[in-house]
Write a structure and sequence with these properties.
This protein has 11 helices and 17 strands. With about 375 residues, the chain is α/β, with parallel strands linked by helices. The structure holds nicotinamide-adenine-dinucleotide.
Length: about 375
């Protein structure tokens, strides 16, 4: 029997659209008891949220998230608004006993994240953070390859997350479209926005990061603020690079910037181990590259003149999530990562095994982000508590 799950979506922007699409699609492709119902959406601009509600088929809308949370006909609060709203909305939603889906990064700081974890755990409400890249089939396959022992003892993890959209000095900061450049709203620059994704993926594949040393740069020091109209100092990191040591003894390098001319959303990682390696590139997202050096079971070296990297087209029924989509060879896209993530959340409600990353798991990513920013300030290595 189907169980309606009444959604209250906060935000109509990039993620408001990605999540609303997931709510509309998930029950068509995944056989699950819980069926999302687009009950209400919320944002402060009435004309825009009304139009958004009509476009996506929400039954109603609110212009104040407090009112959305106060409603009895909402089961799930979905936080798709900027980073400086995540704490307050979470505390109120948890108190009201709502399930909470929150966009990444979990919070502006570890101190905020700790309050959020305490609130959802005290209330006992199901929760998840939308680190959607875990649901790219090729990345989920990389996780399977690691778990099957095909990489063996890991030595190196290498991640990049590169964009190029803030190079021009006349890009302003703040306001609706450019809050990512305003430290008061975003919390940080590329560290919280882009590296948080790389860190989540890295820790999922290769275990916890124990210590980091980092450098950041802000190339354009002052920008006009959209809301005040004044030229103000820029408080975010435009670029960040850090070295990491993982608990399993391997080393990592992480690089992120919004100043890599030509790179739009260049999110890559490579993991090199004793028995093999994996490589992924979001600009070629249907593929996982795998280098097999030794048999995962026996450890026996594979000899031969054809040894080399395999480029696996991750579209077969036996690949993660792909049995829910099309026939082998037909690809899925960016939006499907949110549908896959939502399906995992709904399945977690049904099995009792919470979908990951939940708030507690995402708090660890926040700890790494805060340690990276602290190291960039002090120049010292910073330890991350287990
Ligand atoms: N998982 C991902 O890959 C991914 C991608 C993009 C953004 N994000 C995260 O999603 C969140 C939103 O980012 P976005 O790109 O969708 O931003 P956006 O600017 O496109 O949309 C933000 C929305 O929040 C609304 N909003 C702002 N303040 C509000 C308030 N006080 N009350 C109600 N609504 C409010 C705005 O009206 C807008 O509709 C951020 O935390 C961001 O880091 C995650």
């Amino acid at each position: 029997m189907s169980k309606p799950l009444r959604i209250g979506m906060i935000g109509y922007g990039f993620m408001g659209r990605a999540h609303s699409n997931a709510y509309r699609q998930v029950s068509q492709f995944f056989k699950l008891e819980h069926k999302p119902v687009l009950e209400a959406c919320c944002a402060r601009n009435e004309a825009k949220i009304k139009e958004f509600a009509a476009n996506w088929g929400y039954a109603s809308y609110e212009t104040d998230w407090h009112k959305l949370i106060a409603r009895d006909d909402i089961d799930v609060i979905d936080i798709g608004s900027p980073n400086n709203t995540h704490l307050e909305i979470t505390l109120a939603a948890a108190k009201a006993g709502k399930m909470i889906l929150c966009e990444k990064p979990l919070a502006m700081t570890v101190a905020e994240g700790e309050q959020m974890v305490a609130a959802v755990e005290k209330a006992g409400v199901p929760n998840m953070v939308w680190y959607n890249y875990r649901r790219v089939p090729a990345i989920a396959l990389a996780k399977q390859v690691v778990d099957e022992g095909r990489i063996g003892r890991p030595f190196h993890y290498r991640a990049t997350y590169l964009q190029d959209w803030t190079i021009a000095e006349d890009v302003p900061q703040g306001g609706a479209a450019l809050w990512r450049l305003d430290v008061a709203v975003a919390g940080s620059g590329v560290t919280g926005d882009l590296l948080a994704h790389s860190i989540d993926t890295a820790e999922w594949l290769n275990g916890p990061i124990r210590r980091v040393t980092a450098a950041t740069e802000t190339f354009v020091k002052e920008r006009k603020h959209v809301e005040t109209g004044k030229v103000q100092p820029v408080g975010i990191d435009d670029a960040c690079m850090f070295l990491a040591q993982f608990a399993n003894g391997s080393m990592g390098t992480f690089e992120s910037t919004r100043y890599a001319r030509g790179r739009k959303n260049f999110n890559t990682f490579e993991l090199n181990g004793e028995r093999g390696s994996v490589y992924f590139d979001l600009e070629d997202p249907q593929y996982l590259q795998y280098f097999k050096y030794a048999d995962p079971k026996t450890g026996q070296k594979i000899e031969g003149h054809l040894t080399g990297w395999q480029k696996v087209h991750v579209t077969n029924g036996e690949h993660p999530y792909m049995d829910k989509w099309w026939v082998p060879g037909c690809t899925i896209g960016y939006e499907h990562t949110f549908i896959n993530a939502l399906a995992d959340f709904l399945q977690g409600l049904e099995t009792g095994e919470a979908a990951q990353p939940d708030f507690r798991c995402a708090l660890h990513t926040q700890r790494v982000c805060d340690a990276v920013l602290a190291s960039a300030k002090s120049g010292a290595w910073v330890e991350i508590p287990a």
